[in-house]
Design goal:
Elements (H helix, E strand, L loop, with lengths): L1 E8 L5 H9 L3 H9 L2 E9 L2 E8 L3 H10 L1 H10 L3
Antiparallel strand pairs: 1-3, 2-3
């Protein structure tokens, strides 16, 4: 099992909204992550910086490919773009 980590940043004052949206993650987004072999996904905050981690049962390259081809992920990215 490969592990994958990423860093990101959110806009000032949007942490609560970011958390709210992730508490209501779409069922179809969960399905894409499962299809990609992603498990144990966690995101931590340090002020406006994010640190994400997940495990990839089918490899990080496979997980990235599934996500890159998914229209659901594209919609999620657009949904999150304002924060």
């Amino acid at each position: 099992m490969e592990r994958y980590a990423w860093k990101g940043r959110i806009k000032e004052g949007t942490k609560e909204e970011y958390i709210r949206r992730h508490k209501e993650i779409w069922p179809e987004m969960k399905a894409v992550l499962k299809e990609a072999g992603i498990a144990n996904y966690s995101i931590w905050f340090t002020e406006n910086e994010l640190f994400g981690y997940y495990e990839c049962a089918k490899g990080a390259a496979f997980a990235a490919e599934v996500q890159a081809k998914s229209p659901v992920v594209a919609r999620w990215d657009a949904f999150m773009k304002d924060i």
